[in-house]
Amino acid sequence: MQQGKINVQTENIFPIIKKFLYSEHEIFLRELISNAVDATQKLKTLAALGKFSGDISDLTILVTLDKEKKTISIKDKGIGMTSAEVDKYINQIAFSSAEEFVKKFKTKSESEMNAIIGHFGLGFYSSFMVSDQVELITKTYQKRGETGAVRWECDGSPNYSMDESDKADRGTEVILHISEDSKDYLEEHTLLGILKKYCKFLPVPIQFGTEKSWETVEGEKDADGNDKSVEVEKPRIINNTDPIWKKKPVDLKDEDYKSFYRELYPYTFDEPLFWIHLNVDYPFNLTGILYFPKVKRNLEVQKDKIQLYCNQVFVTDSVEGIVPDFLTLLHGVIDSPDIPLNVSRSYLQSDPNVKKISNHITKKVADKLEGLFKDSRPDFEAKWDDIKVFIEYGIISQPEFYDRAKKFCLLKNVDAKYFTMEEYAAHVSPAQKDKDDQLIYLYATNQHEQYSFIESVKDRGYDVLMMDGILEAHFINTLEQKLEKTRFTRVDADTVEKLIKKEDVLPSKLSEDQQKLVKEMFEKQIDTKKFNLTFESLSEKELPLLITQNEFMRRMKDMSALGGGGGYSFMGEMPENYNMVINSNSPLIGKLLAETDGDNQTAIVKNLFDLALLAQNMLKGKDLADFIRRSTEKLG
Fold it and tell me: For the segment 287-309, what is each residue's pLDDT rounded down to a tens digit?
């Protein structure tokens, strides 16, 4: 037996590594299985090169849990190691790398530790995060030279022992004697969950326990004449070794992509709208599939659905930095060995490749969207309500994306007609330029609640956009910065004459004294504190009383509520501010002035006010109940 001290001087290296090396202790299983996969892949390569002629028909990696013995083992049939290789790679390289890690960064903060580039051999070290003792039993694939099996053991101190083993088969087995503070890993469901999370698509089969399934017995029928089925117990293989992102798009059908989407998200019932298959080998390696899902109202719920892999090993589902922020709403998989990760493989490193990969993904998404728009505009329009959030988010958050997106970004009006931005400008220019030659885009955010305002402007020959998405306030603000001499105004932001100011102004039928009397009537009967009461000379056909909301104030408040209100975060705390506009040319206002009965005056004022509130969906609770009661009494 060989006994010795690992070539380190830092006596407390294990607790330091245990605290800082990995952000989550469960990663020990990913690291050890990744080592087993590497050893197996190396053997397959040697066999392909004609340098190994042994049996490679079954290279399944076996994960075994023994709850009574408190052990977890990971066993592969890969290249194995000689005692010299164990001494080199385990006693020297791995531990000296760990010592270098500790010496170099022992004065760093935890956040700084998380930004360190990884060192060779530290994956094996993860075993000590959960173990009191680790055994390694290995036998090399080689047929000449030193071929005996080796058993290595360490209890988490710099001392180790190494001896011969009676292991007969090729490969390596790592046995972890789980510590008391990590006993949760001795639960089968816990281990299975970790395996499915990190090893779901590894290229070598991984078996963990068994599972029961039903199989048809060929040639036998049951009492009802149906094919007879029996329950059988089979090895439980937890991974798909050949995921479709590794295949060529030409070899795949739509159903293959949809089936894989269900495999990734088994609890999602909506099918993806479409997808993009990434397959790049220069100037970096990148494969993957990105799906466009149907987006719900809550953007945060949609995020963290892209899974990042490195050679089919799951790394993280937090892909900020690799994928532009607006594309984190997509679902799917990205796999790249060229994405630099730190020692725990959980944090990105600063590297030019990351920016290149991010730019490439943006380009591929823009290419796909533009292609769909050009190839089948009707189909693109049918999907628009589901995909517009991606495009609007991209235009808001990534200025360079706008140059591509403006070709296929659509604007939809209240009549459900779609226009590109260039088409819409041409469509509304003849009628919707104001006296200053500024193009005014009128829009609604709720077709039902703003119906009367929509109809009023349509009667003038104006067009109204439907802007009812969750990002519209930010999107509108961005477009105003992009488009020259263009302004967006919601249909209820002002009176119809002021939405698009023209030169001609109607004269008022009320004198200043009469306006003063009308104002006093309203102030006497209703609380006008939160309203800015004004008179406007509108058409006789327009409503006698309108409640409008300042476009700038409302938009900033909407932006603030969603986040990123351009510095106007205080808006969310401000009370609503409305204008109450009295139409000085309305016959009903003239009738109010002529009315001598005080009760009738009060009734007219209250009904006009309630109707204006109702048009803005602001009449609620007791006020709404009182209005209904008064209206019902009049019918009687």
Answer: 999 999 887 665 655 666 899 88
